[in-house]
Design brief:
Blueprint (H helix, E strand, L loop, with lengths): L2 H12 L11 H6 L6 H12 L9 H6 L6 H5 L6 H14 L9 H10 L2 H13 L34 E6 L2 H6 L1 H13 L2 E4 L9 H5 L3 H16 L6 E3 L2 H7 L2 H4 L7 H10 E3 H5 L12 E5 L2 H7 L4 H6 L6 E2 L15 H4 L1 H16 L5 E4 L2 H14 L4 E4 H16 L7
Parallel strand pairs: 1-2, 1-3, 3-4, 5-6, 5-7, 7-8
Helix pairs in contact: 1-6, 3-6, 10-22, 13-17, 20-21
Bound molecules: iron/sulfur cluster (SF4) (2 copies).
One iron/sulfur cluster binds next to α3.
């Protein structure tokens, strides 16, 4: 048996079928169908790996709609690493169908563009100019980017002595669409004393390709990133996109059975940190403007990287604003890589529950920590015509930090 199938069987054998993971699973919450639950999916993969059922007998229907959000892993008392089972199931499916089947033109095009963030940025700018032209319906979930207005992010004052160095991972979609959030995070890191460098040779983290079942493409991108960051020394690799951070932090696992790369990949992954981890507890004073603010957390930051409670702590630390958490702030919004492009119907049904929770809290601002969530939540806000702005936590905190600085110098600014 192949190594990845052995790993999956080990996880399957850990699962005692208790079902504690079911309430945490967004697709099970949606349908109540066992086959749309982690336990049902595990049973399907187990049946196929044990040759008890054929791959065609419902495996694809069961796995296709899994978001890969991994909420089932944090909910599981037995510590079952569900993603290993999911990857094995996807590998079985890949072996039973021609390459590219299941990926339509738009997702394929997007995956190609993510290898060149500059081209992705050009597409975003072109999209803004051509928004009156007819677009393929699969591009609908990208349309919220047209309403986004990047802010100028001037240098922030330094408030701490030097802490050391950090390397910055931009992320392809994050840098192409929301580069001001990246700048804001870098300025906040600099404010607390980090000297931040951005290696030029970096590329997409590979998460989108990985979620689409293209493991070799994902590994090729990972190798480029590992090489790009090796030159920066053993300093933290920070990023502002929860989905990218999760992928980067698992390069070690991605190359576990590749003796040429496993050690390098593991060393790289141990350096990966979400930017919020370096900001938390630092002497930054954040001052708001009396807004009600809520947060859609990144499920990958929470379920894969750990430390996913930090964004909410930082959002709640802004003086003068009121943080109003939604009950499902840690539950996937339906974006999940390119899930909302591949399965727009399921994604929008997941978003409906989320937006009902948001609407009930009357926020002025919905904060996010991942570009996919930003697109998805903007779509939700637009559909409900809510008077709320969706923005990355870094950009929100950057403005609040500048206000705090002005106040501590005796200036009170009306906004
Ligand atoms: S994955 Fe974990 S929580 Fe879910 S059924 Fe198996 S043991 Fe129980
Ligand atoms: S990864 Fe998410 S969608 Fe998939 S089974 Fe686990 S909780 Fe459900």
């Amino acid at each position: 048996m192949e190594k990845r199938f052995e790993l999956a069987m080990a996880e399957i054998n850990h699962c005692n079928k208790c079902g504690f993971c079911l309430p945490a699973c967004p697709t099970y919450r949606l349908t109540g169908n066992e086959l749309d639950s982690p336990r049902g999916r595990i049973a399907m993969v187990e049946g196929v790996l044990n040759d008890e059922i054929a791959a065609g007998d419902g495996l694809e229907a069961s796995l296709t709609y899994c978001l890969g959000c991994r909420a089932c892993e944090t909910a599981c008392p037995s510590g079952v690493q569900y993603h290993r089972i999911l990857e094995a199931g996807k590998a079985v499916l890949d072996g039973t169908r021609p390459r590219h089947r299941g990926l339509s033109f738009v997702p394929r095009m997007l995956l190609r563009l993510t290898k060149s963030p500059k081209r992705l940025g050009r597409l975003a700018r072109w999209g803004k100019r051509a928004q009156h032209l007819p677009m393929p319906s699969a591009l609908k979930s990208l349309m919220p980017m047209l309403a986004y207005h990047p802010e100028m992010i001037p240098p922030a004052p330094r408030v701490s002595p030097a802490q050391g160095k950090a390397s910055f991972f931009q992320g392809c979609v994050q840098e192409a669409l929301y580069h001001d959030a990246n700048r804001a995070a870098v300025e906040l890191l600099a404010a607390v004393g980090y000297e931040v460098k951005t290696p030029a040779m970096q590329t997409c983290c590979g998460a989108l390709a990985w979620h689409a079942g293209r493991s070799e493409e994902a590994r090729a991108l990972a190798r480029r990133n590992i090489e790009a960051f090796e030159g920066t020394g053993a300093v933290p690799v920070v990023n502002t996109a929860g989905g990218c951070g999760a992928m980067l932090s698992e390069y070690g696992e991605l190359f576990a059975s590749d003796p040429d790369w496993s050690e390098r990949a593991d060393r790289f992954s141990r350096r990966v940190k979400d930017w919020t981890a370096l900001i938390e507890g630092r002497p930054l004073r954040f001052v708001g403007t009396g807004e009600r603010v809520t947060l859609q957390n990144s499920c990958h930051l929470l379920n894969v990287e750990g430390g996913g409670d930090v964004p909410a702590k930082l959002a709640a630390a802004v003086e003068g604003d009121t943080f109003v958490p939604i009950p499902g702030q840690d539950r996937c919004c339906g974006s999940a890589g390119i899930y909302n492009i591949q399965h727009p119907d399921w994604a929008s049904r997941i978003l409906v529950e989320k937006m009902t929770e948001v609407q009930e809290r009357f926020p002025d601002r919905v904060l996010v920590v991942n570009p996919g969530c930003q697109l998805e939540m903007t779509q939700g806000v637009q559909q409900r015509e809510l008077p709320a702005e969706v923005e990355h936590l870094a950009r929100y905190l950057y403005r609040a930090f500048l206000r705090g600085q002005r106040e501590s110098q005796g200036f009170h600014q009306v906004e």
